[in-house]
Amino acid sequence: MKRMLTLGLIGASLAAAALPALAQPAPGRGPDRMQARIFQQADSNHDNRLTEDEAMAYLAARFAEADADHDGALTPEEVGTYLRAQWEAARPGPAAGRERRTPPPHMQRMMADRQARIFRMADANRDGRVTLDEARPLAAMFFRAADSNGDGALEMSELRRPAPRPPGERRGPPPPPAAQPAPAR
Residues annotated as region Disordered (predicted)? Predict the structure, then answer.
């Protein structure tokens, strides 16, 4: 669910350009680093807590950046162009000592499919364009879903994904121990 919030805020903020993830930049690569960067940018008063108002202001700013033709609505093409530009800008350069590789085709398809799903979710009137008014309710839903303690603000700890579990392992509390039969005498 936490991962969906990030995808939703980015996706809605950028896919709607509104879209679908936020404190100090985390070391390394991957979604946690992206979440930390977005969180830091959205936390306008730098108190390490992201309120819904701050999140909506961030959404509006990203929406305006992605709206290339300034018509007040985003198309899938505008969102794709904006997301690619953001991704390119965030990639480490050769000076960082890492090779800049393009994601494999299956990952590119997966990212495009996810972007298309989020865009369809945000496009309430199904006209192929997403306005900021269409994106806000979806972003608010993702925000509230991630606010696990219900205090109206997000902290990085609420956005961290749980550690991956081995296949077949149950999520949630462990089951109660099975009753052991008494040894026969």
Answer: 149-185
